[in-house]
Design a protein that fits this description.
By secondary structure, the protein is mainly beta. The protein is built from 1 helix and 12 strands; from the N terminus they run E-E-E-H-E-E-E-E-E-E-E-E-E. A 5-stranded antiparallel beta sheet has the order 1-9-6-11-4, with no helix packed on it. Strands 8-7-10-5-12 form a 5-stranded antiparallel beta sheet, with no helix packed on it. Strands 2-3 form a two-stranded antiparallel sheet. It starts with 5 loop residues before the first strand and ends in a 25-residue tail after the last strand.
Length: 163
Amino acid sequence: MLPGVSVHEINKLIDERGFLAEILREDWKDVMGDDKIAQANLSFSYPGTIRAWHRHNRGQVDRLIVLQGSMKICAYDDKKGSATQGSLEEITVSEERLQVVRIPGHYWHGTKTLGVKPSVTLYCVNRLYDPKNPDEERRAWDDPSILDPKTREPFDWNKLPFR
């Protein structure tokens, strides 16, 4: 994994009524570190929707939890001189297995909704969004300078997972 990127399993407490799942707790130091949640957002995306690429340069950390559907979450390090320069993480998550995916904002990151049903994603951030001065830099979803480290070709969000 890229430094700072992590995946944390969420336990479901299942009974005859359904289930309850604690998704984030400030006392989960292995998940939260010293971060606090400043804002929670809900995102709905139709199948095949790609939301990429963007990054945050002022210390924002994103934590994504897919509540419905399936999603590919990617993070890419293009920082010159970084030990992981050119590395790309692909993480597949779904409603079937609840997980918290942590993405430090300095990595270029994005998502693609997989399968035939829309995705619903809860994402929590440690910085408030300021529409007058947004902490967001963007690239096109198909930016040819973001390379797949396995093929050294431009990263293809639509490439099938078996290679």
